[in-house]
Design goal:
heterodimer, A: 165 residues, alpha/beta, Rossmann fold, five-stranded mixed beta sheet, globular, B: 429 residues, alpha+beta, Cytochrome-c3 Hydrogenase, chain B, 14 strands
């Protein structure tokens, strides 16, 4: 049974925009029971499918500007909205609104945002963002631990971040 | 007599693919200026294809569009295979058509439910539609997913498939691997028929367009290849495409405008349907009739019904191909480089997509020319807009602007596709 979904949002071919999938890959390597980890590019329907039926969704996304490498937990409402809907721009908040209207939204959604330095063309993270991967991963594990506390999503006595993939 | 002038502007069109704007100026109800401004930056695909290996255009041009990458792959393959004198085995052509059916299903379902239906339901977006019509939106998403799954299965992934190559595929599925998708498609057929019934109940503004229609035609409803047909005369060979369809630059758009023998023309679902009605399956024709369509459809507002009928056809066609499928004896035929020129066409969800390549003695691309459907349809869209503002002139500015946006969305315009080229002119003093 899926108790939580971790979604890495972003394009690994746009430098730091790939931080979401990079963090998701680290979480996936832990093979946590009941936790499904996926990458999600711009396709809105894919996100709808990804979190359908899960009580908790943790999105990891890049945020432009700010202090490169800074990791924050925020809500969907705090993410900047792209405004108009188009085929490419159903942003996570709009996708959540659509999921709610359809009755298939997760009960709880948390966003771990990482400030970027460089979203130019090409693979690879900037040094500041690469250095923040561990902190971002611990933030995701923290949400997972708190969100499903007592359901043993993290192992007995296991602390978020004490295990390296 | 009082003279009045009205200016309608939409800075950024919503629910279309890419970045475009609208500018209409009216004097005493008569449109003096109607411009679909495409300001998405040009993308120079035709220029950077030069010097690449003859094997590369299917993968490179797929990147022109995330919604219809298969159309680009197939038109590119058709052109280069034609230049090199390669002929595909019948079973590989069937698999190519099956992949393309997946793209039609997903692209049409996306446009019908997420982008176009809100216009008919007085809703700003699909989120508002979902609150009132939950079952319908769930059905649309399921339908779209079936198309995406088919693309994943044959193409390796649903956006920018990776399994397509000149001469066929890198690998082909077994019959057993196709069985689960057949199950999903059988459910999708019910959803597709329900979609036709759903959109048939919408109210449609009156509009009859006289644009000449241009589409491919084939024994079966044209998708992955065909000969060129037109409404006002005999068709012409694919190799003669650029003699008939000419592209010109207009100041207000980063996309080229195209004309057919100097006149405005229309490609896409209305043209395909009207020129190929007899090639539809009996079930698709029956669905069309029950939705109130005749043999012809020249009202762009009804294009949503035509797309729904085409989804019925594409699902049925996919099932037909899967039912008779045997794994091809080889995944691809060899396509040896040969210097020369090749022309290729296919029916993208939005209309006829033409590619031409010249291959040099070293097997490199020396010239590339790509004419996407949205570039061809720009003049038709602007003409429709002029008719709509005259017919609906009594509306206030907000309502008239909304009606103009609808007239544009009728075409499911793919603005990113249409801005792949721009001739740069530098004036030096």
């Amino acid at each position: 049974m899926t108790r939580a979904v971790v979604v890495g949002i972003g394009n690994p071919h746009r430098r730091d925009d790939g931080v979401g999938p990079a963090v998701a890959a680290r979480v996936a390597a832990r093979r946590l029971p009941g936790v499904r980890v996926i990458d999600c590019a711009a396709e809105p329907a894919a996100l709808l499918d990804a979190w359908a039926g899960a009580p908790l969704a943790v999105l990891v996304d890049a945020v432009s500007g700010g202090v490169p490498g800074r990791v924050r937990r925020c809500t969907l409402g705090e993410l900047a909205r792209s405004g108009a809907l188009s085929t490419h721009d159903l942003d996570p908040a709009q996708t959540y609104d659509l999921a709610r209207a359809l009755g298939c939204a997760p009960e709880q959604v948390a966003v771990i945002a990482v400030d970027t330095a460089d979203t130019g063309h090409g693979p690879g993270l900037s040094p500041a963002v690469a250095a923040a991967l561990g902190e971002a991963e611990r933030a995701v594990l923290g949400v997972l631990g708190a969100g499903i506390l007592g359901e043993g999503i993290l192992g007995e006595g296991e602390e978020p971040g004490d295990q390296q993939p | 007599m009082t003279r009045s002038s009205r200016t309608l502007r939409v800075g950024a069109l919503t629910r279309v693919e890419g970045e475009g704007a609208l500018h209409v100026e009216l004097r005493d109800g008569i449109p003096e200026l109607v411009e679909l401004n495409i300001y998405e930056p040009p993308r120079f695909f035709e220029a950077f294809l030069r010097g690449r290996a003859y094997t590369e255009p299917p993968d490179l041009t797929a990147r022109i569009c995330g919604i219809c990458p298969v159309a680009y792959q197939v038109s590119a393959c058709n052109a280069i295979e034609s230049a090199c004198g390669a002929t595909l085995d019948a079973d590989l052509l069937a698999l190519r058509r099956l992949l393309y059916c997946g793209e039609w299903i997903h692209s049409h379902a996306l446009h019908i439910y997420l982008l176009h239906a809100p216009d008919f339901l007085g809703a700003p977006d699909v989120i508002a539609v979902a609150r009132e019509h939950r079952e319908a939106v769930l059905r649309g998403l399921a339908l779209k997913k079936a198309g995406n799954r088919l693309m994943e299965l044959i193409g390796g992934r649903s956006i920018h498939p990776i399994n397509v190559r000149l001469g066929g595929f890198y690998s082909t599925p077994t019959r057993a691997e196709l069985a689960p998708i057949a199950e999903e498609l059988r459910r999708a057929l019910d959803d597709a028929l329900a979609t036709v019934a759903w959109v048939a109940g919408f109210d449609f503004p009156e509009l009859t367009v006289e644009h000449e229609l241009l589409a491919l035609s084939a024994e079966r409803y044209a998708i992955e290849d065909g000969v060129i047909a037109r409404s006002d005369g005999p068709g012409f060979a694919v190799a003669e495409f650029s003699e008939h369809v000419r592209e010109t630059q207009v100041p207000h758009s980063t996309a080229l405008h195209a004309t057919l023998d100097g006149r405005r023309h229309l490609t896409g679902p209305l043209a395909r349907y009207t020129l190929n009605y007899d090639a539809l399956s009996p079930l698709a024709r029956e669905a069309a009739t029950s939705a109130g369509l005749g043999r012809e459809c020249r009202n762009p507002f009804r294009s949503i019904i035509v797309r729904a009928v085409e989804v019925v056809y594409a699902v049925e066609e996919a099932l037909r191909i899967i039912e008779s499928y045997q794994r091809p004896v080889r995944p691809f035929v060899d396509v040896e480089a040969r210097p020369g020129v090749g022309h290729g066409v296919s029916e993208a969800p939005r209309g006829l997509l033409y590619h031409r390549y010249r291959i040099d003695d070293d097997g490199l691309i020396a010239e590339a020319d790509i004419v996407p459907p949205t570039a061809q349809n720009q003049a038709a869209i602007e003409d429709d807009l002029a008719r709509v503002v005259v017919a609906a002139g009594g509306l206030d500015n907000a309502a008239l602007t909304a009606m103009c946006e609808r007239a544009i969305r009728n075409y499911d315009p793919c603005i990113s596709c249409s801005t792949h080229f721009l001739t740069l002119t530098v004036n030096r003093r």
